[in-house]
Amino acid sequence: MKILVTGGAGFIGSEICYALSDYGCEIVVLDSDIFEAENELSNCKFYLGDCANKKLLTKIFEENPDIEITIHCAEKSSVTMSIEHPYEYYSLNIVKSMELFKNLTEVGCKKIIFSSSAGIYDDLPGYMATELSPMKPRSPFTRSKYMTELILRDFCNAYDLKCIVLRYFNPVGADPKGRTGPKGNESNVLKYLTEILDGKRQSFTISGNDWMTRDNTCIRDYIHVYDVAQANVKAVENFDMAFSQKNSHTDPNFIALNIGSGVDVTVREFIYAFENVTGEKIPIVYGPRRPGDIGGSYANINLAKRAIHWEPKLTVEEAILDYIKWYDTHKKNLDEQN
Q: What are the boundaries of each domain within the chain?
């Protein structure tokens, strides 16, 4: 089976490409920045360009007419940066995505897997989110994901598309085999914690210690990026089956699934886990809440288990260890990118 992955040169995208390759798929990558990935993902076919470029997409499908599914994970994903630069986020995450979906209908690719975000959910009693939980995205990034889901749902109803939306919670870690990992410019908790061990930061700032949680820090659902990639593999493997099941979704051509560990972890507890793995104490300071933040959420993953036969395999501690291994191996390159 041949799969098109937009954004396949990025952190999550490259891990998805490796997972699909391990499964036996042929991978076609469309990304606007592929120089480093071409060296890492040697078994993929690369196209450099914009996911909204109709001429380029037509060329890709002319040269690869056997592409069966498109996995769309090209995005901008920082909550903080989206508040400062909303145009860029709405432009790529909504407008260009919409053009991609329209162009896919015209080249005849009717199956889409879309990388969305659990940040679309509202504050929830007990913090556990199901796919039917109330939604209230609070930043341009999360609103862009919510609006793109609405567009996809309408496209599926109108244009005979089928789409599985995967709502990622908090991906962390690096490839367990060391093949790929964060590229150096992503904003993530493990990057900051590891830089403290490396002497580049003095302390870790927790944004808010007045949340209504067991230790007053935000609830998160940290999931190993390998498990996120495996969710995409399972969505590919069981795509048709997911739509044939009764009671697995409310729309005939559109399914949304939570992709998380299913375990609620506070930010403070995550730091404790990091300290246990490394044996090092992390200095902590408390800062104000970040704009667009909520108390948090964690995933009810029962629907993903049932619809695509996926469930996570790796722990938070394994994600931390895999990231540290990646960081130690690529420290020089990461420093140059920052």
A: 2-176+221-261+297-313
